[in-house]
Specification:
This protein has 2 helices and 20 strands. It is mainly beta. Strands 7, 8, 10, 12, 13, 15, 18, 19 and 20 form a 9-stranded antiparallel sheet that branches. The protein has a 3-stranded antiparallel sheet with strand order 1-2-5, with no helix packed on it. A 3-stranded antiparallel sheet has the order 4-3-6. The radius of gyration is 21 Å and the shape is elongated.
Amino acid sequence: MTIRKILCYFLGMGLTIGCSKDHHLPQEKYYPFNYTAHYSYTNDTLKIVVKNPLNCPLRILISSPDKSLQDISEKFGTLTLKEKSDTIINFYLKTQNEINFKFDSKFGDLNKEIIKEKFSLPFPKNRTYKIIQGYNGSYSHNTDFSRYAIDFSLKIKDTVCSAADGYVVGVIKDYEYGGTSIDWLDFSNYITIYHPKSGLFTEYAHLNKNGSFVKVGDTVTKGQPIGLSGMTGYTTVPHLHFNVLVPDSKEGLVSTAGEFEEGYRGTELTENTTVKK
């Protein structure tokens, strides 16, 4: 028995040891959505235009590496745009040879009240899966962004369903492979859905290449199939990484604990627990 076959045998016994072919990190970086943000400077007037095409609030952070422009970026700080809205800012600025601003975006409105809701398990009815990793998992659920995420043992091309009604605000679908190095963390296919009634976001990660059934702007309903599970990004085994997220001033979004309407509490879903929908 070859070393690779031995590793695959242990993987079949439940140990998270990768046995797939090693792949190089993708050279191209994909982004979950696009938005418009630009500026112009004419006749001592700085004009900033920002447009939010998403069905969720979007925070735009304005910054500049130029010290002479930092007062302006601090003055405007973060612009919070409502769903599908835009804003134009005109600002007097004494004659300046060069203008250099940077825009960054984060989901959510920090002033919107968050109402916790129970979600549906993110797979079809009459399916049973085990938990691979639960809250505060030492492998990868140990940051503010993923602390309360749950990994379900979906296989490659198993159906993933929306956990609640909402709007699709982010999709990445073009990555093909995964890897066991932390360097693969930013190369996962995933879908992000905004739930306007609660103000929460849900994320469904490690999806198969071209495994998204939805696109940004789509409206989805609870239980609707939205994609196919896979093994892209930072992972050792095929699974669905499910995360409930709340807007945060520092991190953009942070993971938050949740419950499922099928009767499961997130705190109870520890490794090897079986769940059925």
